[in-house]
Amino acid sequence: MTAPIICNNTAAVQAILDSLVTQHQFDPAQIRTDLESLEHWGKDWTKHFAPAPSAIVFPKTTEQVQALVLLANEHHVVLTPSGGRTGLSAGAVAANGEIVVSMDKMNQIGTFYPADRMVEIEAGVVTEQLQAFAESHDLYYPVDFASAGSSQMGGNIGTNAGGIKVIRYGMTRQWIMGLTVVTGKGDILQLNRGMVKNATGYDLRHLFIGSEGTLGLVTHAQIKLERPPQDLTVMVLGMDNFSDVMNVLSAFQAKIDLTAFEFFDSVAIDKLMAHGQVQEPFESRTKFYTLLEFEAPYEPIMDKAMAIFEDCMEQGWVVDGVMSQSIAQAQELWKLREYISETISVFTPYKNDVSVLITHVPAFINDIDHIVSTNYPDFEVCWFGHIGDGNLHLNILKPETLSKDDFFAACQVVNKYVFETVQKYGGSVSAEHGVGMTKKPYLHYSRSETEIEYLKEIKKVFDPNNIMNRGKIFDVE
């Protein structure tokens, strides 16, 4: 782990904490400084940086957030926002003495607008909580991923989270109708106010979506909801050539609106079967697998799906396949994709979350496989991801003979070649997990120097004293 470099003055931090209680109606219970709390709230799912915050603060209102930000500016103290801490890029890690601003106590669902199919929420609302609320009103919030049970909407907005339904429903950005934010200067802004049509100049909410808390803190959001999908059906198909994965994607997309198209390889299946939590999808073992999902409320859609499947078999693209016959079977098939990350975690995987145009996916995977096998023939690579939107998860698994430090050091060398390949295809070094600190050294592979300078200037407008999540995405002088 990287050793912390303390950036906040202890006396200044204490002055802020005292002022919050004596002047801004904070209950002492809204502030924690014990070591256990600092460890718990100072980190996310990454393990590259040791958490070392100065304090954890739990505001309950936008006005309390504003008071904290104004005091942080006055005392030149850095703040790090914290949601469900499920991030994979160290965007929520407080490694340098920051005050962590946890949204845990801002977790209420507010006004529901049935005619607009929209609901107001606080930033600390958990994704699954929002999904359950939508379901209770016969509606649907479609942004979904493995951490839905613990990730918070403020964090999802900060990273523009994606997940397994992007092929149909898009990223978090598509569902944010309005935001209330406290800027790095301490101003409260209400952005777009939930409107569908609003042609009054710059739409600042889109700057805050994906900004990872570097411009300010999201406190409330207005979220668009959708009609629920009907009779979701899942198919898992096995193929021996990666080009056939793309052929199958094209064949189904030409005639059916897919809600998901996921991909995983034989290494993932081997690990899943060894772990024993899921069943073999079919008797054959193939090199590549796809999981596709679609709505089938009418018999003609099911007939069409079967016709496409049979055509794919005749073309020699698909070796074997299975289709769900019930909700329970669909859930079991989804476990083949959803349990991969948990299953391979025991191998201390070095993860990369990258994206390229779908057109470039076959050539990109071929190039990366060649890079890893040439430089590290003893490393096992597990591929999976949301291939229907060009997002791939490259997982290099640690050999038993290597220590974690030596393994990560070796993977850092591979990173250069991986990201040069991403750049070659005009892709992104972070498709859906944000930049944080882990991807910061590689930002220039996806963004030009001129573009990064514009990003830095935008930050200076909203956060002139550089107190908001300092050191994330890029460094500002």
UniProtKB/TrEMBL annotation:
UniProt cross-references to Pfam families, sorted A to Z: FAD-oxidase_C (PF02913), FAD_binding_4 (PF01565)
Catalytic reactions on record: (R)-2-hydroxyglutarate + A = 2-oxoglutarate + AH2
Keyword Oxidoreductase set for record: yes
Single GO BP term: respiratory electron transport chain
Cofactor: FAD
A GO molecular function held by the record: FAD binding
Record's keyword terms, sorted: FAD, Flavoprotein, Metal-binding, Oxidoreductase, Zinc
Protein name: D-2-hydroxyglutarate dehydrogenase
Biological source species: Psychrobacter urativorans
Organism lineage: Bacteria, Pseudomonadati, Pseudomonadota, Gammaproteobacteria, Moraxellales
